[in-house]
Amino acid sequence: MTAPTPVTRTVRDAAFDVLRLHGLTTLFSNPGSTEVSLLADLPEDLDFVLALHEGSVVGAATGWALARDEPALVLLHTTAGLGNAVGALATSRVNRAPLVVLVGQQDRRHLAQQPFLAGRLEGLAGEYPVRVETPVRAQDVPGAIGRAVHAAREARGPALVLVPMDDWAQPADDLPIPAPATVRRSATADPRDIAEVADLLSGAAAPVLVVGAGADGTDTWAALTTLAERLDCPVWQEPFGARAGFPQDHRLFAGHLPADRPRLRSTLAPHDLVLCVGAPFLRQYPYTPGKLTDAQVVVVTDDPAEAHHSPVELAVITPLADFCGRLARGTPPREPKRTIPPRPTPRHTPSPGGPLTPVQVLAALADRLPADTVVVEETPSSRPDLHALLPARAPLGFLSAAMGGLGFALPAAVGVRMAQPRRPVVAVVGDGSSLYQIQALWTAAHYGVGAVFVVLANGRYAVMDKLAGQHGGKPPWPAFEEVSIAGLAESLGCPTRRITEYADLCAALDTLCADLADRAEPLVLEVCVTADGEFRP
Ligand SMILES: Cc1ncc(C[n+]2csc(CCOP(=O)(O)OP(=O)(O)O)c2C)c(N)n1
Ligand SMILES: [Mg+2]
């Protein structure tokens, strides 16, 4: 007896479900061979409407969308079909008609050989689409369609999804798609959206807040503080956030979420509802399979892109301070019973005479920096320790490059101090990172900008060495211990000190931190440190 073939849900099945979810059950099309694998045996609840030229397909869909004030669904045939449709797509854009346009493409498996009907589709409609989604994997097609729906609604125009013909038969991911089921948007906080989120919160047994860079601001911090206190719930910072979304010295602040899925799942496991404010749900770093969380998640953000990429039930695009303030005021206080267990702080025993560690430097800064200091971070291998030891205690208390490109911290610290000349500004930077924009020190020196640059000089790309080690290999890149950051700073006209001893570090910081706000010139502290610890962002 042969075993029954398991029934696998395909990308096509998953895509139809996304279309149904958004009411896109009428399909305007003029198809060709690259669309047959989608269309043959179309489910009965989907209506197919044939038009005899793509201009008519898109024109009819545009009328349908405008009359219903809802997105319409279009299917076009690779280059020939999309090319014929461009004029009508331009019209739909200018007429502000939301369209979701699926464009068929040749089979992925031989696209590289430019087979008959292979389309160069991405730029073909020029600037007229409001979004063009080119799914990297077949399994990304359903999410791409979901995001196209939201983009078409948001920007009111055609959103394209380019789909190779073999994608439809592939097995779908058994995961929530990276696009929200429902997006609500409002220019001022809408009482109905607030009531919906408030109801979810009051129905949750164990809610949790996740905050991100978008929540960094005095009013949003205040609103989230009230909300967290009334909910008596922990607050986590998004992984790899560029700014702090909550006072990190507050008793309910729980720490920074881990950047991989297994640790994320176990961190959020005690909760049944996650309210994620000012962040997408959720930025990861190393890829690991599986769900992000089993909890229900609501994203509240003022950034449509953050909302559109989140695999959540509900996303609300709205001004955050206003929304969170009203939500907090309407939230009845729960019985306060929570104690957040103290977070482990990295060990930093002083070691007179021994080589300095990054943790000793960070701890020495933590003992001395004023609460309103802007810490500009670019110290890849020490970032988790920096988070643990230097919590953001004021809005703009933490600033970092959102996208991982080195060369941000030095010039950004200069700009921050120029904009806020009475606020302490301290950049904590790896030596490798400092070299991407070391010349920013000239600007700081020339214009008398009183920022301080603490360079953790380990003479190498420590984080890269650790990643190569974790990968099980030997890095081919060398160390650069001969580079003198202090020498480079000096050559750029910037005052500098090189520090190798714990006692000198403490003495230098004691003097420095006494008048951080009043400085009229920059200072580079090149602190020689070991490259120790493990890297687990
Ligand atoms: C512009 C740019 N180039 C390359 C990288 C890759 N990269 C990430 S971390 C890193 C090394 C950073 O070295 P360093 O600042 O000395 O910090 P350490 O790892 O020693 O703490 C590199 C090269 C990057 N993120 N950005
Ligand atoms: Mg280094």
Keywords:
single chain; 537 residues; alpha/beta; Rossmann fold; 3 domains; 18 helices; binds thiamine diphosphate; binds magnesium ion
Descriptive account of the structure:
This protein has 537 residues and is of the alpha/beta class. The protein has three domains: 11-169, Thiamin diphosphate (ThDP)-binding fold, Pyr/PP domains (Rossmann fold, 3-Layer(aba) Sandwich); 191-329, Rossmann fold, CATH 3.40.50; 358-528, 3-Layer(aba) Sandwich (Rossmann fold), CATH 3.40.50. 34% of the residues lie in helices and 17% in strands. The protein has 18 helices and 19 strands. The strands form three sheets. A seven-stranded parallel β-sheet has the order 7-13-12-11-8-9-10. The chain has a six-stranded parallel β-sheet with strand order 2-1-3-4-6-5, with helices on both faces. Strand 12 (296-301), helix 9 (304-308) and strand 13 form a beta-alpha-beta unit. Helix 3 (54-68) packs parallel to helix 4. The longest helix has 17 residues, at 78-94. It is globular. The relative contact order is 0.08. Bound molecules: thiamine diphosphate (TPP) and magnesium ion (MG). The site of thiamine diphosphate (TPP) has 19 residues, from helix 14 and helix 16.
Summarize it:
With 537 residues, the protein is an alpha/beta fold. It has helices at residues 11-21, 36-39, 54-68, 78-94, 141-155, 191-203, 218-231, 261-268, 304-308, 320-329, 358-368, 383-389, 409-419, 431-434, 440-446, 462-470, 485-491, 502-514, and strands at residues 26-29, 47-50, 72-76, 99-105, 131-133, 158-164, 182-185, 207-211, 235-237, 253-256, 273-277, 296-301, 314-317, 374-378, 398-400, 425-430, 452-457, 496-499, 523-528. The chain has 18 helices and 19 strands.
